[in-house]
Amino acid sequence: MSKFVTEREMEFQRECMKRVAARNNGQTAFVDTYGCQQNEADSERMSGMLTEMGYVLCNSDDADVVIINTCAVRENAENRVFGVIGRLVHAKRRNPSQIIILAGCMGGEASVREKIKKSYRHVDAVLDTTSFWRLPELILGLLEGDERAAEINTVGGVVEPDSRIAEGMPVSRLYPHKAWVSIMYGCNNFCSYCIVPYLRGRERSRNSEDILKEIREVVADGCKDITLLGQNVNSYGEMTGEGLDFADLLAKVAEVDGDFLIRFMTSHPKDTSKKLLDTMASNPKIARHLHLPVQSGSDRILKIMNRRYNAESYMELINYAKKVMPDIVLTSDIIVGFPGETEQDFEQTLKLVSEVEYDSLFTFIYSKREGTPAAEMEDPTTPEEKSDRFNRLIELQNAISLKKHKEYVGKTLRALVDGEGRQGDHNLSARTNGGRLIHLSGDKSLIGEFVPVHITQATTWSLVGEIDKGLMNGVRK
Ligand code: 5AD
Ligand code: SF4
């Protein structure tokens, strides 16, 4: 079967959008998003389709259509979503014609589908990440109860997974100056703790021309900060037949005319090449930020995690990145308390974190996901020991983050003002090239502009700065 949804099928979705729009008179829709950037990107597509269908987007549980776009990576995220869905029963009572759809990663879990069918009967449909391009057909079916849609849209029904790539979906971007661009979908890595490959399907890459077309469009719309998304961006292109790897794609994106920065996530260390780091180093449009999840510093644990690299090869990449880009910002994900992790294993993680000196870390306590190999493993470590390790890791990282942030004080950097701030007297927030958060004051009209910022203070989590008005027109581009 083709890798792509056919033009005919997309035409059918467009037809469904038109038919919904024809009967819509100012109905509202709310897309409530949980989880990672990929989910945010998916939500922007669903919002785009809802807008085409005539819905006015809002932020209320009382909307006529409510879509909960969910995350399944950890159990507590799932429990939170069940709480949210449970509470929606009141909104549905107030408005019985309301449409409630559970979408996203949880929508791909058989156990969740069963639970929704049995215990959450006010949910009208379940849509997984691979088939959300069929949202128009689903909504039309729920509104009209037509026969074709009825197959998939019975109360508590599900849309079957379909992991082909759908091009040409409308999009309603949340920010004018910031865009997510998915370059690939799914994951083939099967890290032993992770449920994502079971929910987002096998890895598949978009064609480079489709990606470049989207980039040209967002740049023409004034976008300044573009993040290329994929579960494992470094294996981009393995199956496109174009002979273009991720580093080649990045270089091509950087050739697009305009003043913008390119970011990307997530990179898998086993597939991160020196060629990629060289491409970053030689290209000022590529942000000096590498998010390279290490997960653990212990070779023994990395092996049972099925990560396929070791601490030494990881450090080699980090050291090379630092050599070719001395100003690189490094971030990572770490799981504490993986089944069987000993105190010695954990100390290896602390050692690696001290050596790398990350700018910041995303730290997680291991969460058991049914259906993954790690869920079958012995896990004798107590929750107390795990949370003690977790706290020790955070304490170490906080000290490193503060030290690294202090190095910015006194410097003037180019930063993108990205929104209104919520920090004390500072009314704006900005991001450095490497993605560090700056609080600053200035006119709101600067949102979406690059400005020179003189850094005056640093904390563990952010920087404080002042716009350097003298440099405003002459700053390094
Ligand atoms: N438990 C805890 N953290 C997990 N992650 C993925 N699966 C799990 C799990 N079962 C973390 C990894 C990954 C990040 C997105 O979420 O660190 O890089
Ligand atoms: Fe999960 Fe590993 Fe794939 Fe990331 S690379 S999505 S952690 S299986």
Summarize the entry for a quick read.
With 477 residues, the protein is of the alpha/beta class. The protein has 14 helices and 19 strands. It binds 5'-deoxyadenosine and iron/sulfur cluster.
What keywords describe this structure?
4 domains, 5-stranded mixed beta barrel, 477 residues, 14 helices, 19 strands, binds 5'-deoxyadenosine, 6-stranded parallel beta sheet, single chain, Transcription Regulator spoIIAA, binds iron/sulfur cluster, alpha/beta, Rossmann fold
What topology emerges from the helices and strands here?
Layout: H1 7-23, E1 28-33, H2 37-52, E2 56-57, E3 65-70, H3 75-94, E4 99-104, H4 110-119, E5 125-127, H5 135-144, H6 147-150, E6 157-159, E7 178-182, E8 184-185, H7 196-200, E9 204-205, H8 208-220, E10 225-229, H9 246-254, E11 261-265, H10 274-281, E12 289-291, H11 299-304, H12 311-324, E13 329-336, H13 343-356, E14 360-365, H14 383-406, E15 412-423, E16 426-432, E17 437-440, E18 450-458, E19 463-467
Parallel strand pairs: 1-2, 1-3, 3-4, 4-5, 5-6, 7-10, 10-11, 12-13, 13-14, 17-19
Antiparallel strand pairs: 8-9, 15-16, 15-18, 16-17, 18-19
Helix pairs in contact: 1-5, 9-10, 10-12, 13-14
The structure holds 5'-deoxyadenosine (5AD) and iron/sulfur cluster.
Residues 187, 189-191, 194, 196-197, 231-232, 268 line the site of iron/sulfur cluster.
Structure write-up:
- The chain is α/β, with parallel strands linked by helices and 477 residues long.
- The chain has 4 domains: 7-159, 3-Layer(aba) Sandwich (Rossmann fold), CATH 3.40.50; 175-262, Transcription Regulator spoIIAA (2-Layer Sandwich), CATH 3.30.750; 288-407, Transcription Regulator spoIIAA; 412-476, Nucleic acid-binding proteins (OB fold (Dihydrolipoamide Acetyltransferase, E2P)).
- It is built from 14 helices and 19 strands.
- The strands form 5 sheets. Strands 2-1-3-4-5-6 form a 6-stranded parallel beta sheet, sandwiched between helices.
- The termini are far apart.
- 5'-deoxyadenosine binds next to strand 13.
- 5'-deoxyadenosine binds at residues 73-74, 193-194, 293, 295, 333, 335, 364, 366-367, 369.
